[in-house]
Write a structure and sequence with these properties.
Largest sheet: none
Number of strands: 0
Structural class: mainly alpha
Number of helices: 2
Order of helices and strands: HH
Length: about 80
């Protein structure tokens, strides 16, 4: 398991790369991904979602973020 500072650095780097390549639109997409994770965490807090649901949400967000960075790096929208 990565230490929180390592994870924070990875997230910061990915968001910075996305913003440099795609500007505010890229940040809006990332914001939407984070909002989905927050909804999942809130659901877990209320007993509606399981840890597995939260894990899947994080994995999906990570894959989507990598896809966004790859698309932006290649110059496609």
């Amino acid at each position: 398991m990565a230490y929180p500072t390592n994870v924070n650095s990875q997230i910061t780097d990915a968001v910075t790369q996305a913003h440099v390549a795609g500007g505010d639109e890229a940040l809006n997409v990332i914001s939407d991904l984070v909002a989905e994770i927050v909804k999942g965490l809130d659901g877990a807090k209320q007993g509606q979602n399981t840890i597995e649901d939260i894990s899947v949400a994080f994995e999906n967000a990570e894959m989507a973020l990598h896809a966004i960075v790859a698309k932006l790096a290649s110059g496609r929208e």
